[in-house]
Design a protein that fits this description.
It is a multi-pass membrane protein. Keywords: Cell membrane, Membrane, Transmembrane, Transmembrane helix. About 75% of the residues lie in helices and about 0% in strands. It is mainly alpha-helical and about 210 residues long. Helix 2 runs antiparallel to helix 6. The longest helix is centred in the middle third of the chain and has 26 residues.
Amino acid sequence: MTLLELLDYASVIVFALTGALVASRAQLDIVGFAFVAALTATGGGTVRDVILDRNPVFWVAEPGFILAAVAAAALVFFTAHLFESRLKLLTWLDALALAVAVPAGTGVAMALGHGAAVVLLMGVATGCLGGLMRDVVCNEVPLVLKQGELYVTAALAGAAAAILASQVAPESVALPACAAVTFTLRAGSLLFGWRLPVYRSRPPRR
């Protein structure tokens, strides 16, 4: 199994766990768990592959990805009640999933020979869109849009780190560097309150 395949599997499994946790918060049945988990797990990668005209889409070429997502959903369905704070677990699993999915998307775009702009966008899309779909479907405030938090910024910085590292190092170094930068920024935002400035409207002058 190649590094990119490992990253895709890890991304699918961890994002599926987050999808199932959100389903537990919405009190869905086991079919709902499987649906939300699979949507979360494959959403970003599907958008990536469609945009890049990568045929077939990764989970069509290897249906094991869907089976892995469903297995993760079943695991959470029977164990979610054991966790004291599902929101806290969800937040950290999502950070881990982001740190795996961004190098997966970045690596695919780089392997297909695309330029820096496309590589950056595919890293962000793969890392962010599955979670965005999850939160919208389950009527949650999307983590990707929370005020000022480093989420898309973390994904963008991670993809940029991969591009820079690839100039002087092989894929086996560039993609882990991408994961490390992404997770560090996202974790820093959660632990230390690292934020981007947000727009504040001012009352009109009289």
